[in-house]
Amino acid sequence: MTLPTTFNDLITEATSLKLYQKLIIQLNKDLLLANIDLEFDEETLPISLKLVLQETVFHLIQNKFSDYLNLLYQVDVSELKIRQLDGDDIEKLSEDVTFLILQREWQKVWYRSKS
What we know:
Elements: H1 7-16, H2 20-33, H3 46-63, H4 65-75, H5 79-83, H6 90-114
Helix pairs in contact: 2-6, 3-4, 3-6
């Protein structure tokens, strides 16, 4: 599996394989397990998904850092990938982390669809 390198590529691939709703379901499951008070409707538009998740990640980084770390752990985002990000600009960091979260969730959904 080659992971999508942009948000648009990820959404295009998920939509073309008819797995976008499963991506949202997986994200909701991990948000619940991480005790993050956020749930997306399965009909959420991709741009809304990205922006609301990014806003939540931004809030967690600034105000609830342990919850942020718990979310990364629950989703199983690579610690190496997180460390490679530039933490100087929190807004850019939250955007990059949001993509890594969605990318990892996509990986889970894709693998499950193939088995």
